[in-house]
Amino acid sequence: MEAQTRGASLLATFGSFRSEIDAHYDRRERCIKISRDITALSKKAIFTLHRISTGDKAAIFREAEKKFDELRVLFAKLAVEVHGEDFWRYEKSVSPGIQEFLEAYTFYHYLQHSTLPSLSACQTALDPSPSALAPPPSTSDDPALPPPPPPSSILITAEDYLGGIADLTGELMRLAIARVGSSLGSEQGMAEIRTLGKFVRDIKGEMDPLAPYARWLNKKLTVLDQSLGKIEAASYTLQIRGAEFVDSSPAMLDLLSKGPSFEVEVA
Question: Which residue of 99, 146, 200, 207 pairs with 163 in a disulfide if CB–CB is 3.0 to 4.6 A?
Fold first, then answer.
């Protein structure tokens, strides 16, 4: 009888372990799914913002802000899954989505203010709206029991913040390249590209010393170096070609901006 009791106790113990592990993996899969949804929606916000060179700025910003509102709803759902100390247990599962959001938000902030938002400003931007944080109605039969507390906001770590800024430089590179075609012969356009190059160069100078302290920053800095090289090459080429044809007609400048090389016959 004692052996049977001991065996039943062991089975119950291992059954609880199994339930705990199953719950962990189920929650992890939910976190990964929400993080992927955040990544996909953040990319859509970035694609929207890249239309700013050719579209109505106010309309594009409003469209991007709607996507940020949708992202805050997703973060509210994620906060339920990683409430409290559970955040650090699932931090690696949710970090890619957080960094993609930061890439989109810092790009949005730069286009409006030509500066980087602080870590605290990014944290505030990620906070869910009051309606998203509202606790669900109580299902308890005991009206004396208080409703469950609302989930706290997702924490933005210093590593995620640095990762989001490093990814931002890729979007700034694409913005600079997109402006090359419309900037030939325009001093203002060329000044904007030089400003973008200097901004990315300043980011690199600040982030290089921090590489040993963030687990994936080294890899991102390699991509940052490539983005900076492309901006500098585009700026150099634009400056040289613009100087060669400074007195050319608008039609000639438009032809140059389209890229194919051609020979000019000299009389």
Answer: 99
Mark out the alpha helices in 50-157 (DSSP H runs): 57-81, 86-89, 91-113, 119-126, 130-133
Asked if 132 and 74 touch (Cβ cutoff 8 Å), the reply is no
Q: What is the pTM of this model?
A: 0.79
Contacts of 136 (CB under 8 A, 6+ apart): 147, 148
Q: Which of 22, 165, 25 is nearest to 93 (CA)?
A: 25
Task: Outline where 50-90 has alpha helix (H).
Answer: 57-81, 86-89
Instruction: Give the tokens for residue 229.
Output: 């090289």
CA gyration radius for the chain? 26
Burial (CB count within 10 angstroms: exposed 0-12, middle 13-18, buried 19+), residue 212:
exposed
Q: How far is CA 66 from the centre of its chain?
A: 16
